[in-house]
# Entry
Amino acid sequence: MDVIVRPTPTLQGEFGALSSKNYTTRYLLVAALSEGVSTIYHPAHSEDSDAIRRCIADLGAVLTEDEEKIVIQGFGRHPGMSKSLTWAMPVRCCVFLWLWRPLVLRSPL
# Structure
């Protein structure tokens, strides 16, 4: 395919980038730790992101998904405790969140 590119005074448009498993997991964590509502469009699906979805839901985030996006109501600095959790699950979730914290904080959003 031949393409001719000419200078232009403005550049505008839209493009769709492929989903990234790593960015999806980071966005889920940041959304859960926020106190507002976050929307992630075209999230990647993987075992890691599914585990994080379950973990943040168990800690109190409210997730609503459809084919295009995930809407997350974060729990902020006040994670909740589900009655169905054993004592070990919140500990594992907190350790997981703590270990991911440096990656989330360094990642550009």
